[in-house]
Design goal:
Blueprint (H helix, E strand, L loop, with lengths): L4 E6 L4 E6 L2 H6 L3 E10 L2 E11 L4 E5 L6 H8 L7 E6 L8 H4 L3 E4 L11 H11 L6 H9 L13 H13 L5 E5 L7 H16 L3 E6 L2 H7 L2 E6 L2 E6 L1 H5 L3 E8 L12 E6 L5 E7 L3 H8 L4 E7 L3 H9 L1 H9 L1
Parallel strand pairs: 5-9, 5-10, 7-8, 8-9
Antiparallel strand pairs: 1-2, 3-4, 3-6, 10-11, 12-14, 12-15, 13-14
Length: about 325
Amino acid sequence: MLTDQSIIIDSRVNGVYTMHRGVEEIMATNIIALNHVKKSFGRTQALKDVTFTLPAGQVLGFLGPNGAGKSTTIRILLGMLKRDGGDATVFGEDPWHNDLAIHPRIAYIPGDVYLWPNLTGGEIIDLLLRLNGQDHNPKTDALMKAFEFDPKKKARAYSKGNRQKVALIAALSQDAELYIFDEPTSGLDPLNELTFQQEVRKLKKAGKTVLLSSHILSEVEKMCDAIVIIRDGAIIEQGNLDQLRHLSRLRIQVQTEQPLSALKQQTGVFDWHENDSHLQANFAVDHDALTAVMNALTPLGIVDLQSTPPTLEDLFLHYYSDQGVSSHVTQ
């Protein structure tokens, strides 16, 4: 929620700081700002409460499964849909009323790419560039080579992956201020996914701003400064990965000199597995219970202990479980 004292993630200081500003000023000083945005299609409420900001120079991961509201949010930011409630700005402008001023500053990749079937991939790339006031350039050729893309074939012959490459090459060829990627690697093979990740890191190094919508958790984890998680049209959590990890469980593998079976009854311990000797165990533990668990382990004589931090996937599943959402709401 944006209030007069709103917390904004800012990659320039690698952390969080408090801004004593009103909502209008916050929305004007971020590349993207959404405040309690709502959108319905008939009786279906696609967006119930979407609030987040994206400062300049940051890569923001917008996480959620299909149907959570990611694409609807992006279409509102592009001025393709009119919101029913709340406020939304891009470069400080209302995207519904000022889309013509905003679009030349944005490079966009949709999740579903449809092409002109009788044009070649190269012709479509050049056309997309010209539509945004830009031209085929050396970077375009370098991207074609990096993505192993054949620009001479007619679009009708392209697979989904190759159709996606057309949009990727056209968008990444542009010198834009804001890049919006909606499920950009859909249909790509692992090598091309890696190429895309490398290109996003180049954008980040160049100080560009990126909104990356995805359900591929490893993709977001490798590239993003901050994360926004959406469920059923509402934002349920946001922050950088380190800030959110403390809400998920650590994985502990331990060996002790004395049996440790009693530990599985400890508060905050889950998914317990131990060997027949009862001297080795593998389990998950809530971060807040870690001190108590270590205090219980120490008298047993720790021979070996390994702690694995949660991945973004662990965090994501935590928030999408009924228990995770309920615990978040009651905090």
